[in-house]
Amino acid sequence: MFKRVLVATDFSRYSDRTLECIGEIPGMEKILLIHVLNKSPVPESPSVFTRSHAGPEEQAERMLAEKGRYLEEMTGIPVKTELVEGTGADIPGTIIKTANNENISLIVMGARGKSLFRGLFLGTVSEGVITRAGIDVLVMHFRGIEGNEDAPLEKFCTNVFSHVLCPVDFSRPAEKTLEYLTILGFIRKVTVLHVIKAQRPGPDKILPIQDPEHQLRRITADLVKHGINATSITRSGNPVNEICRVADEQDVSLIMIARYGKSDYTKNIPLGRVAAGVTARAQRPLFILSPHISLTISVRELIKDEFALAEEIWMTYHQQKVDPKTDRVFGVFVEGGLAAVARCRRHPDGLEVDGVYVPDDYRDRGYARKAVQALVDACGSEPLYMHSTLPLVRFYRSFGFLQIGEDELPRSIKERFNFAEGDLEGANVLPMGRPAQGRLH
Question: Fewest beta carbons less than 10 Å away: which of 15, 292, 322, 379?
Answer without folding.
Answer: 292
